């Protein structure tokens, strides 16, 4: 579903694609080079980091943002309240907890005839207090199913579109986190991320004939989220190893800072939601506002200097970006390959 004009048929739209303005045109009378508007797809742009990034990019006037969201009305309202002007965004429906929806989104996107210059895999869910697992439409534990498997299928299906983009720097960005990295203090707060030997993932994460957890252990919602972030960071690196050289696409991940006020913590107990922002502001000093985090991710989308591929970006306290070190598990190439191969099977690509 798209908020703007619906295009009548695929054929007509494909014809439009062929006529797309090249990325760099000599449009001005002085013959000065100008760059067309880039198109960026951001999943989960209806709140938090995704919305703040959409806002930061829209304000430059250089980007058209496809807000890929599960709640169409919420996304439209969020875009309006963030002051996005109509010509800078389109809301399109995407529910990452359904592989059919992911495929439908990809078809719908292709039908718009727009080039794809940057894809940002940002959406996530976190169930820290859940006693029992819940599942996606396809029967995968919901946090790994949404945060990792939905994005894995989406990125794989859109890779060719990225490849075909003639934009000067095309990018695939998968949002990671410090809490999946056990080489940090935050990553050592129990329960720690650990994918183990991937036996639960091999079994389908369905909680029936296998565990709902990647490592095959007992269900723990907070661990499932952190495991999903490890998958996100491993996937970015595996994409880099498999495709960077041939396609020129920049693959990147990042830790945007602790955005303690977002909807990510909606399922947490009220006391946590009350104390978490001041704890991060005054004790760990890891707090970052939604606006600031949006500027950070917007840099990874559009900064001409951030073209290095295979990098996990972080920011220091002056908000300067630097290449950060991932934990041993989150940089394990063998594990990355195995997660890739198992994920391919689960989403029906192999
Ligand atoms: P929010 O909850 O504010 O945003 C998450 C977004 O994901 C929402 O737009 C939500 O949609 C969307 N979403 C959830 N499930 C689905 C689904 N099935 N299909 C499509 N969209 C979905 O959280 P944040 O902004 O904090 O999180 C954004 C990213 O930042 C995540 O990847 C998270 O892991 C990462 N991150 C966050 C940190 C923090 O401190 N907050 C720290 C480090 C990383 P809806 O609005 O409909 O609920
Ligand atoms: Mg954590 C430098 C210390 C630091 C940082 C940057 C974070 C970020 N956290 C830090 C430290 C601690 N945290 C310490 C010492 C504790 C024990 C009191 C602690 C606890 C804690 C909890 C209970 N922290 C949390 C939780 C959560 O539920 C959040 C979480 O794990 O979500 C998955 C969380 C977070 N701490 C962070 C960040 C960025 C999060 C949340 C979001 C995320 O990783 O996506």
UniProtKB/TrEMBL annotation:
Its EC number is 1.3.1.33. This is NADPH-protochlorophyllide oxidoreductase. It catalyses: chlorophyllide a + NADP(+) = protochlorophyllide a + NADPH + H(+). GO terms for cellular component: chloroplast. The keyword Protein biosynthesis does not apply. It is found in: Plastid, Chloroplast. NCBIfam families: LPOR. Keywords: Chlorophyll biosynthesis, Chloroplast, NADP, Oxidoreductase, Photosynthesis, Plastid, Transit peptide. Residues 1-30 are annotated as: Disordered. Residues 12-28 have a biased composition (Low complexity). Phototransformation of protochlorophyllide (Pchlide) to chlorophyllide (Chlide). One of its GO terms (biological process) is photosynthesis. It is an enzyme of class 1 (oxidoreductase). Its main location: plastid. Belongs to the short-chain dehydrogenases/reductases (SDR) family. POR subfamily. InterPro entries: NAD(P)-bd_dom_sf, Prochl_reduct, SDR_fam. One of its GO terms (molecular function) is protochlorophyllide reductase activity. CDD domains: LPOR_like_SDR_c_like.
